[in-house]
Protein 1
Amino acid sequence: MKRFYKSVGIAEEESGFSVRLDNRPVKTPAKKPLMLPNRPLAEAVADEWDEQPENIDTYKMRLTRLANSAIDRVTEHRQAVIGEVAGFADTDLVCYRAAEPVPLAERQEAGWGPLVSWAADRYGIALSTTTGLLPVAQSVDSMRAVVTVVRSFDAFSLAGLHLVTSACGSVVLGLAVADGRIDGASACELSLLDETYQIENWGEDPETTKRRDGLLDDITAADRYLRLCKAVH
C-alpha cells in the first residue's frame, strides 16, 4: 500500500487518544476508530505511521496491529480470548522438562524453575511439572487462578498478553512479561531453550534463523506495547 498521507498526529478525545493522518482519524481493519487508552501508546502508534516509507509495511507496524487486535477482536470476543490464554496452562511449555540430556535439563530448571515458583507466589498458579511424555493434570485451583488473573487484564493489555503467551506457548512466560518480571527478549530465549540446545549441537538453517528473528521481534514489540499500556500520560 502506497503512503497516502503527509502528516501524522494524535488528538485527545472523550474516550481516549486518536491517531490522525492529515488530521483524519485512523480506523481499524473493522472500520472502528483507532482509539488508544493513553498518550504514550498513542504517540508510539503514531510514530509507526510516521516512520513508514513510500510503501507502507503494515506487518512491521506491530504496535498498531496489537491495538487493532484489542479493538476489533478482544473487545468483541473477550471471553474467548481469556479462554485461549488461560488454556495454555494445561500444556504450558515450562511444565514439560527433559530428563536427559542432563545439560538441557539443567538449563530448563535454571530458566523455567524460578518462573514456575514466581507464578505460584505471585498469583497462586501452582503448576505441576513433569519429565514424562504424558500430559500432566493441573489442579482445579491453579486453573481457576489462571483464569482470574487473565480476566483482570483490560482489552488492550489482554491483546499483548495473548501474543506473548501464544508465541511462547506459555502463560507463565506471558504473565512474567506483562508483570515486568522478565523482558520480551528473555521470554523469547526461554521459549526456545530446547531448540537453541539442538542448534548448538547440530547447527541452524536460514529458515530457522528467519523464524526465530521474527518471533523475537513480535515478542519484544508486545513487551513494549504492554509497558506502554500501563504508562501514565
Note: The beta strands are 8-13, 16-21, 24-25, 35-36.
Protein 2
Amino acid sequence: QLMSKRLAGVDFDALDYDTRQGLIDYAYALATKYGEGAGALASEMYDALAELSDTSVPAALPAQTATYAEVAKAVNGTIKSRNAEIISAAVGRQVKMVGVDTMMQNALRDGAEWAWVLRGDTCAFCIALAARGWQRASKEAIKDGHAEHIHANCDCTYAVRFSHDLDVEGYNPSAYYKMYYGNGKGSPDDKIRALRRRIYAENADE
C-alpha cells in the first residue's frame, strides 16, 4: 500500500532518471524495513515450532533482506507495466522472500522437513509443488540464496516441521498429487499447462 501511494500520480510516460531512482530508493527502504520484520517473525515461528516438537536446535537466524540490486531489478522489471499494483506486488515479494528464506535456511541447517502449503487462490505451479508433500530440506530448494518458488500475489508458503507427528491443518498432498499427475502424460511442464487449462476452465466465469 505504501508503494502504491508513492506511485500515485507518477507520469510513466515522462519518467526521468531521478524519479525512477527515487522510486527504487523508496522501494529499497520498504523492502529493508518490512523485510527485517518478516525475518524476525519467521525466526520466532521457527523457534516455536522447534519447541513444540521438543527439538533442541540453535536459535533461528533471520535471512538477509533484499539487496539494492535485487530491488532495483524488481522495480525496473515491472515499471514498464505502468501498473502500481504490479510494481507494488514485486516489492512485496522482496519482503515475503525474507520470511520464507528464514524458514528454509534454518530448516536446511537443522535437517528439518518442509512442504509447500497452499493458501487462497492457487496457480498450477503451486499445486505441483504442494503435490511433493513433506520432504527433507535440501540445497536444491534454495537457489542463489533464496527459496525456490515465491511469486508476486501468492499467499502460499513453505511450512517446516521437525517431527512426523506435526502437520498443517488442511494440507493434503495426496489430493494435489492427483490433481497434478492426473492431467495426462508428458513432461512436468506439460502437466502444469494441462492443470492451468483445467483451473482456467473451472473459473472462467469468475
Note: The longest strand covers residues 113-117.
Protein 3
Amino acid sequence: HPSQKGNASCLSWGGSGGDFGKLWNHSKKKWKFIVHTLRDANLPLPRGKIVEFGPGMGLLDDFLNQKATEILMLDHTAAYIEQRATPLSARCRHLLFTRDNLMELLRSEAESCDWLLSLSVFYHVDDATAVAIISELGKLLKPGGYALIHGWNDSTPAMLRERGNLERLFARYPQYFINWDLVQSSLALDYREIH
C-alpha cells in the first residue's frame, strides 16, 4: 500500500522513485523486450482473454491491442490502479487477489482464458508460493493456453546471504531466489516449457 514515504509508482517496477515517466519508460522497454522474445520464439503475442497476476498500475492495458483482448487483473491491492493518470479501459476488470475471489473465478471462469501473464512479480514470492499461484491461476487457462512469467530473480545465493539481514525482515516486498528446477519439476505435469 502507498505510504507517505512511497507511492504506488515508487513501489512498482524499475525503482522509479515515484516518477511515473521513469516507470512508464522502464515498463515500455520491458514490454518491447517481451514482444521481441515471443516473436523470436515463434510464439503468438498475448490476445484473447488474459488474466494478469500483479498488474501494478495496469500498464498492460496501455500496451496490448485494444480490439483483441479482455484483461482480468488480480492484485493484492487496488492502490496502484487508483494512481493511474487515466482510468482502465472498459475491457479491464480489476479484482483483489483474495481466497473468495479466486474461488469464485475458478468456479465461474475455469478454462476460459487464453493467457496467464505475470511481469516482475515472482521474485517477491518463494518457490512453494510461486508453484501454488501458477497452479491455481493456471486452472483459468483453456487447454493449450499460454503462461508468460517474466522477471524471475536471477540473484545468486551469495547475493541473498548479503541481503539476509535485519532490514530484510521488514521489507515491504522481500525478494527470493527461485529454484527454477524445483518450480519446473513441480509444474511439469500441467505445463510444457516452450521458451
Note: Strands lie at 48-53, 69-75, 92-96, 113-119, 141-150.
